[in-house]
Specification:
There is one protein chain. With 498 residues, this protein is α/β, with parallel strands linked by helices. It is built from 13 helices and 23 strands. The chain has helices at residues 8-15, 17-26, 113-131, 167-172, 206-221, 262-275, 329-343, 360-365, 379-391, 404-407, 410-416, 433-442, 454-465, and strands spanning 31-36, 39-40, 45-50, 53-58, 65-73, 77-87, 138-143, 154-160, 183-188, 191-197, 238-245, 251-257, 281-286, 300-304, 308-312, 315-319, 350-354, 371-376, 397-401, 421-424, 446-451, 470-478, 488-495.
Length: 498
């Protein structure tokens, strides 16, 4: 561990001081000594059993023997934080990031990747069996990611006038005015107004670190001209950064300002452009709303193009600042190949691609299908989807923008044709019941369900199979997010012959 990470478990406890203080007002919670960790649980936690209750503990490894401070106690479970590791597990590995345990991301860095994959496979199978009550005919082996570091193609960072302070900083400084309180990084879990200043993030490519640190230091050099955002008072100038990359080396940078200051804005953007000529899409936003989302904001192109392009299997995909694209480009290719295999296309099928995003899956399978219709909520993404078909010479796709339950109706199906195959890749919340009902009435021969949330996928599969019209034949997990608990899963459903 680095010097900044010394007293690691003390930092964990400090992060939970507010929660513990509230708990003490109700009832003093115990420190459990010599507790052995039994296994891994959902949401990146580990678990064990104490006095007949399940105890969930973050950042623990199976085989650890720890002293654990209980932070919450209910009738059927407890939550705790590691106070001290007495005997570390033989399975532990050294985390590669100095921000481990603090920033809230990459919670499984202390576990070997093989163990992470085993746990993710188990999460998927448990969800389908316990939540969905689904009997899957065949589980195919999980597809691990070739890259376990610097695999992510999109990162977002927040400017804060008052960053998270480490215990050593608080001890060494008596006058807080002497501290540099500004920071550019990630929100701490459960603290909307606290941002951890990030020195290096192992998720994105190295150049993204260089760009972020250049902008941070440039703005710090003139604090009156570039005040970092005050998240509580909603004032300041520098608000957020979004950065995207492609496997071909293209870079998109979106700088979000809270208000317009043309002189300061142009000076910063010109400095960035001069220092990093490899940026192919330099954009900015003026966002004076109370929240950081830019989906309903105007995006201004300052230099280069207003999009970047990703390539996959000879196809080119255009990605705008508001477009959804899988955040692990290399694994996205593996995921889409699984979805295409599960679709079992012969060239004769009429395919519906629900929640199509920028039409990646739709265009990816179009060469193996008679026709493909894609539906997506975000209008800008549909514009990109149509362009993606055009630039790839694909003429058998149609795309529609709107709320899925409003677009995908029986009238729509009558107008555009009965689907032989439906591929659906919904957001984490899963599909609306009306959408599921319409799918069942459409009665495609095969349904391919791609999900980033096994729990909501299991819930939806229970509804899709409840009538007995479909059976779940295959399931395959694809790890898009090494060192996190997140997992993608693809399921094939086949229509029963009655």
């Amino acid at each position: 561990l680095t010097s900044r990470s010394e007293g690691l478990w003390g930092v964990l406890l400090l992060n939970g001081l507010h929660e513990q203080a509230l708990a003490r007002k109700r009832k003093e919670l115990p420190l459990l000594e010599g507790i052995s960790i039994e296994g891994l649980a959902g949401e990146g936690k580990a678990l064990t059993h104490v006095d007949g209750l399940v105890l969930f503990v973050p950042f623990a490894a199976p085989g650890d023997v720890c002293n654990i401070q209980v932070t919450k106690k209910k009738s059927s479970f407890m939550k705790g934080k590691i106070a001290e590791i007495i005997t570390p597990s033989a399975q532990r590995v050294t985390p590669h990031c100095s921000h481990f345990t603090i920033c809230g991301g990459c919670k499984w860095q202390h576990l070997p990747y093989s163990l992470q994959l085993e746990a993710k496979e188990q999460v998927v199978q448990d969800a389908l069996k316990r939540i969905g009550k689904i009997e899957v005919e065949r589980y195919l082996p999980i597809l691990g990611s070739k890259r376990t570091e610097r695999y992510r193609n999109k990162l977002e960072f927040t400017f804060s006038h008052r960053r998270w302070l480490f215990p050593d900083e608080l001890k060494e400084q008596t006058d807080t005015e002497e501290l540099d309180l500004t920071g550019l990084g990630f929100h701490l879990p459960g603290m909307f107004d606290k941002v951890l200043d990030i020195d290096q993030c192992h998720l994105g490519t190295k150049v993204l670190d260089d760009i972020r640190l250049f902008i941070r230091d440039y703005c710090k050099a003139e604090p009156e001209k570039y005040p970092f955002f005050d998240l509580r008072k909603q004032e300041g100038f520098m608000r957020t950064l979004m950065m995207r990359t492609t496997s071909t080396g293209e870079i998109m940078l979106v700088v979000v300002f809270f208000r317009e200051d043309q002189e300061a804005r142009e000076a910063l953007l010109d400095a960035v452009k001069a220092r990093f000529p490899e940026i192919t899409s330099l954009l900015y936003v003026i966002n004076s709303k109370c929240n950081d989302t830019i989906t309903n904001q105007e995006i201004h192109c300052y230099a280069g193009r207003d999009y970047i392009e990703e390539q996959m299997e000879g196809l080119t995909f255009r990605i705008g600042p508001k477009s959804f694209y899988q955040t692990n480009s290399e694994q996205a290719y593996e995921l889409y190949k699984v979805a295409r295999d599960f679709a079992e296309l012969t060239g004769e099928e009429h395919v519906y691609d629900l929640y199509t995003g920028t039409g990646t899956i739709a265009n990816f399978v179009a060469r193996q299908a008679a026709s493909v219709i894609g539906i997506e909520y975000v209008p800008e993404a549909i514009v990109d989807a149509k362009i993606n078909s055009e630039v790839n010479g694909i003429d058998n796709t149609l795309f529609y923008a709107g709320d899925m339950k409003d677009i995908l109706t029986e009238d729509f199906i009558l107008q555009h044709g009965h689907p032989d195959v439906i591929i659906t890749d919904p957001p984490r919340a899963g599909m609306h019941e009306e959408v599921i009902s319409t799918i069942l009435r459409a009665a495609p021969q095969r349904i391919v369900y791609v999900s980033c949330n096994p729990a909501t996928q299991a819930r939806d599969l229970q509804l899709l199979t409840a009538t007995g019209d479909y059976r779940v034949t295959k399931s395959r997990a694809v790890d898009m997010f090494p060192h996190t608990h997140h997992i993608e899963n693809v399921v094939q459903l086949i229509r029963q012959q009655h």
